[in-house]
């Protein structure tokens, strides 16, 4: 079975951690992930400049390791990222800003990437909110 998984929840929330654990189980069960799509406050999972207290789980690093180890397609909604002041190298240059906060394995792209992934999947799962 092929899954597209959208993460709307910011890091350090139960929903973000559940999304990560669910994604890990999808692959452990020999299913495929077509795309991970980080949207709304879920884009903060991709931010490399967050500093997490030592006694808390660093969800960003967990996501990053999972994505890199499994060579997954991880897309951050460009509109949601720009609205929150989060940029990759291309957008940093375009807007003449000094800081890049989104780096590989994540890539910025539009909602068309989410739509395309949903069309190529058997299941579309979303994780939202902080519950």
UniProtKB/TrEMBL annotation:
Cellular location(s): Cytoplasm
Coiled-coil stretches: none
Superkingdom as given in the UniProt entry: Bacteria
Major localization class: cytoplasm
GO molecular function: sulfur carrier activity; sulfurtransferase activity
Keywords per UniProt: Cytoplasm, Transferase
Alphabetical list of InterPro entries matching this protein: DsrEFH-like, Sulphur_relay_DsrE/F-like, Sulphur_relay_TusD/DsrE
UniProt key word Electron transport: no
Keyword Transferase tagged: yes
An annotated GO BP: tRNA wobble position uridine thiolation
Gene Ontology cellular component terms for the protein in this record: sulfurtransferase complex
Cited PANTHER family: PROTEIN YCHN (PTHR34874), SULFURTRANSFERASE TUSD (PTHR34874:SF3)
Stored NCBIfam families: PRK00207.1, sulf_tusD_dsrE
Protein family: Belongs to the DsrE/TusD family.
Protein known as: Sulfurtransferase complex subunit TusD
Organism: Entomomonas moraniae
